[in-house]
């Protein structure tokens, strides 16, 4: 449903395009032009055609395949944000502090904790001979945090041995291969209303 016209075909699946600016945008910003140019990239992912629009015009400095890979990495970053919110923070607000300095401190604490967990999960992935994304963040982070948080009856010097024992169990944290053919539309859930639903007899 993308309305556009091709200005220049750079390569198969790579073109500069011209698109109209919406009337709503021009009404709010009269200084906007009637059209704007971008670059349309079409790649096949898992046998399905994917289309990306970018403002990076040069195919030599920014090849189409490299931009498609960056988009895939961007999706992994979004999954990382979800892991922080849902698993690491257990659904609680990520930032609870009220003062700017404490907000920065809390944010850095969350990012450091996430980075350390991900680094250890990379070790687990190498031990299990799988990609790091195949290690379940929810179960692995729960096991690692519990190992560090629960006081042990042994001395602190036994922590390396306990971590090594956890590493030996890496295969239990491996997820099934990701189904690349799955697709989910960008939609939001219906918000439940506190008011009763109107029936046919009501006007």
Task: Kindly list the characteristics that best describe this protein.
RNaseH-like_sf, single chain, alpha+beta, four-stranded antiparallel β-sheet, 203 residues, 16% strand, 4 strands
Give the SSE order as H and E letters. EEHEEHHHH
Low-confidence stretches: none
Helix content class: 40-55%
Distance between the termini: 38 Å
User: Strand order within the widest sheet?
Assistant: 1-2-3-4
Determine the structural class based on helices, strands and strand pairing: alpha+beta
- Strand residues, percent: 15-25%
The number of helices is: 5
Protein name: DDE transposase
GO molecular function, one term: transposase activity
Pfam families: DDE_Tnp_1 (PF01609)
Organism: Xanthomonas cucurbitae
How would you explain this protein's 3D organization?
This protein is α+β, with helices and mostly antiparallel strands and about 200 residues long. It has helices at about 25-30, 65-90, 100-130, 135-150, 160-170, and strands at about 5-10, 15-20, 35-45, 50-55. Among the domains are: about 5-55, no CATH class; about 95-175, no CATH class. A 4-stranded antiparallel sheet has the order 1-2-3-4, covered by helices on one side. The chain is extended, with a radius of gyration of 24 Å. The model has no long low-confidence stretch (mean pLDDT about 85). It holds the Pfam family DDE_Tnp_1.
